[in-house]
Amino acid sequence: MDLEILNSAVRISTPLVFAAMGGLLTYQAGMLNIALDGFMIVAAFTAVATAYFTGSLELALLAAILASMLLAALMAMFNIKFRAHIFIAGTAVTFLAYGLTALLLKGVLGQDGVFTSDRIPTFPVIHLPGIENIPVIGEIFSGHTILVYVAYIFVPIVAWTLYQTKWGLQLRVVGEAPEAAAAAGINVDWVKFQAMLLSGLFCGFAGAYLSLAYVSLFANKMTNERGLIALAAIFFARGNPYLTALVAILFGTATALSVRLPQVTGLAPQLLQLIPYVVTVLALVLVGWRTTRARSRHSAWRFDIG
Amino acid sequence: MPDASVPVVSMRNIVKRFGNFTAIHSASMDIRRGEIHALVGENGAGKSTLMNILYGLLPRTDGDIELRGEAIRFANPKEAIALGIGMVHQHFKLAPSFTVAENIILGSEPLKSFGRLDRIRAERETKAISERFGLNLDPRAIIATLPVGLRQRVEILKALYREAEILILDEPTAVLTPQETRELFATMRSLADSGHSIIFITHKLREVLAVSDRISVMRQGRIVSTIDNKNVTAQEIASLMVGRSVLLRVAKNEAKPTGELLLDVKGLTALGERGETAVDNLSLSVSAGEIVGLAGVQGNGQDELVECIAGLRRPVSGQVQICGTPLRPNPRGNRDAGLAYIPADRGDLGLSLESSIWENMTVGHLGKFKTGPFFAATRAKQRAAELIARFDVRGATPDKAAGSLSGGNQQKVQIARELTRDARLIIAEQPSQGVDIGAIEAIHRTLVEMRDAGRAVFVVSADLDEVLSISDRVLVIYRGRIVANLKAADTDAEEVGRYMGGLDEEPASADTLPKETLDVV
After folding, report:
1. What gap in Å lies between CA B222 and CA B173, rounded to an integer?
2. Calpha distance A230→A20 (Å, rounded)
3. Which of A92, B43, B147, B481 has the fewest CB within 10 Å, making it most exposed?
4. Mean pLDDT of residues grouped by 10 in chain B (521 residues)?
């Protein structure tokens, strides 16, 4: 196996890890956030537009995060304040994001479908001193942009926050037993709102990475349902941060394979591009099988479909 | 030491309206330091509403509350907790996958730097407080693995951890075994002796007499009387609750079981939600022309047993026969075999609360209204109107939503639908739960009529008085087994209560039943 694939797996997994961490916080707070793609696409567009006009990567990243969090606030308002079903709110926000970015692409940047330019700065590649020279490890882990490292550092931070801090405990109780949290004097809605905003923050990173580091362009719907794949990883790992990241990397590796294999095997690329989706579906089938088995075939009929 | 006669809490002329509906008219109540004060009343009398106002869960429309002489108006429970009021709800508010210590400290967590949880201190403090009040608990135990009695301790400790001096217990004994109830009463007494005031909401009169110092009776949103627990009888309190003298026993003739087994359960074993053995090689039968009551503390396998009979749960082994037909786990097949099922869970399993009353009454009778591929809605509505009159469903018209009715009248809708089916076996689960005493009498009368018409009636109830008053034969379930089979006329609450607590655990199968019990088959 050539190390090139593993190196690109690390890169390809990065936005999945970001999105998965964002989705994880809302999952733990008891919300199925299906608007991760919406948050990311808005961030990706804002990043490209800001970078194009200002030439500053820092500003672009900041603007991407703000835009994504703004959309998250809107989502939280629909779901938490106006009590819209999270699925409806999520679908609405995602469609809004797709539509808005396509419109602004035409209106602000004057392009249809795709925008790219020499004036867009991209995140530089970092060569890790020391590690760079270690065989294998260096080839896989060195030579990525700063955002790649940020993504992976977020994983232990999220885990620590969830399991070692007061905020994390309250967030998890809000997710599992909102009535217990409310009875203990916790402001359930506020905690959920915070979780949704942080979900926006992580998706801001993911979007900026997609359009300014992974590639250097903006295209309509360029997130390619990465948000949904991230959700699949969260479900598979039952909300455990490390396992979630690991599954996200597995999905990323599957994508890396689907890019590389056509060159190696000569099989139709269209067919091989199915790999990451097939892996995701298989993982979800496994989750379903596992929960059904855990519920045991002796347990009661379930009438609810929600 | 404050004067004991000065109230800690004083509620004056509390009024609570929900829109046009007045839940509490003008309730006044004093709580003294160190007393156990029982608050009794029928379902819907306003007990919980009044306490939720005191606890800050509901705003009051009018009236004054004084706490230690100072006027208060809580916007939320947090403010009530801060001033030393704690409430243990009937449905526990605990996070099941978290530890005892985590649940207890939630909301007032001990911290290290950077907002980090101090787990060691949390566990130490949990241990200390549980020992101080004699409520032993392992701080690291996961809530989901604890029996109900211990979960209740966690709830009480949660309040004590926040230094509650006034403790509101909402129907605390509903889920406890007699043994656990005795322990709870001992705890309540020792808390009262150490200066805590306890408000004990209940409708079990025997318990009121056993543990309380004073008793306040609520009826239709008013505190009708507050009396010292001296020389009062259950009958007197019941009359105060209802406003007229109550028939606590159902008037009925001797049962004439025909011996034709309409329900026959043999060697049934079934697992509960967590994979535990909930029903353990259980056998029972109900014959045409008799009412059999199943008594037991909640959570001893009643739910799983009924689900197996209704075809809602797949048994591990054993056989269920309804009217002689052996069954597979399939709700429709069981109903076709002759089952009428009145579930305890009215709002979910029994009725669609958002649908109209006529729709709810028509489900299960659809065949009667078929005209070719079409459905005769007008005729179905007519029939619903007839049923509403026949079963005396108050405040109902066919087009109203089922959810707009009171609990008792929702129950009548279920009963009307189920009993008009051509089914010879009737299973009624908690038939009088959340139903006022007037409606209970009507429901019981209907069940007796069904028995006299040659149907078999199987009543599952956590309310021992109900089981004893309506049944001809009483079965007691304990840990998934039938531990007693008694003739209702020859037994009493004392004896059945003993079996419910599992004190006479030996008899497990028909051939080892004690001598005072009847033969099962």
Report:
1. 24
2. 5
3. B147
4. 70 88 88 94 81 91 92 89 90 90 92 90 93 89 86 92 93 77 91 94 84 91 90 81 64 83 93 82 94 87 91 89 87 90 85 92 89 90 93 86 82 90 91 73 87 94 83 92 91 82 51 36 29
Report yes or no: A200 and A22 within 8 Å, Cβ to Cβ. Answer: yes
pLDDT reported for residue B380:
93
Question: How many Å separate Cα A193 from the centre of its chain?
Answer: 18
Q: Which helix (H) or strand (E) holds A71?
A: helix A57-76
CA–CA separation, B213 and B197 (whole Å) = 11
Residue B261: phi and psi, rounded to 5, are -80, 105
Q: What's A187's DSSP letter?
A: -
Tell me the residues of chain B between 152 and 211 that have a Cβ less than 8 Å away from chain A.
158
* Contacts for A250 with CB less than 8 Å, ≥ 6 apart: A233, A279
| Amino acid B513: pLDDT | 37
Interface test with B, best of A28, A166, A238, A305 (most B CBs within 10 A): A166
- Whole-Å CA distances, B401 to A155, B299, B505: 50, 32, 47
Do A192 and B135 meet the contact criterion of CB atoms below 8 Å apart? Answer: no
Burial of B397 (0-12, 13-18, 19+ CB in 10 A): middle
pLDDT of B331: 85
| Beta-carbon count within 10 A of A262 CB | 16
Res A305: pLDDT: 34
- Chain A interface disruption, residue of B98, B104, B106, most A CBs within 10 A: B106
DSSP B357-375: HHHHHHTT-GGGGEETTEE
Closest alpha carbon to A237 in A16, A11, A38, A12: A16
Query: Cα distance from B415 to chain A (closest Cα, Å)?
Result: 21
**Given this model, what pLDDT does residue B519 score?**
34
Q: What is the pLDDT of residues A102-145, one digit of tens each?
A: 999 999 999 999 999 999 998 999 888 888 888 888 888 888 99
| CA A21 vs CA A14, A38, B98: distances in Å | 11, 15, 22
pLDDT for position B491? 87
**Structure token digits, residue B196:** 């805590």
- State the smallest CA–CA distance between residue B301 and chain A in angstroms: 13
| HEC secondary structure over B393-409 | CCCCCCCCEHHHCCHHH
Residues contacting B159, CB < 8 A, separation 6+: B81, B86, B87, B88, B167
Question: In whole angstroms, what is the distance from residue B420 CA to residue B44 CA?
Answer: 28
Tell me the HSE value of A53 on the side-chain side, using a 13 A CA sphere: 10
Q: Burial code of B299-332, b = ≥16 C-beta within 10 A, e = fewer?
A: bbbbbbbbbbbbbbbbbbebebbbbeeebebeee
Cβ–Cβ pairs < 8 A, chains A and B: 87
Return the number of other C-beta atoms located less than 10 Å from residue A186's C-beta.
20
Residues in chain B closer than 8 A to A165 (CB atoms) = 114-117
Q: CB-based contact (8 Å) between A291 and chain B?
A: no
Give Cβ neighbours of residue B353 (< 8 Å, ≥ 6 apart).
Answer: B347, B401, B402, B403, B410
Mapped onto helix, strand or coil, the DSSP state of residue B199 is strand
Distances (CA, A) of B275 to A185, B172, B266: 34, 27, 21
Angle among Cα B230, B231, B233 to the nearest 5 degrees reads 115
Interface check A134 vs B, CB under 8 A: no
- Chain B residues within an 8 Å CB radius of A167: 115
Instruction: Give the integer Cα–Cα distance in Å for A173 and A193.
Output: 15
Q: Which residues of chain A have pLDDT under 70?
A: 1, 294-306
How far apart, in whole angstroms, are the C-alpha atoms of residue B268 and residue B281? 5
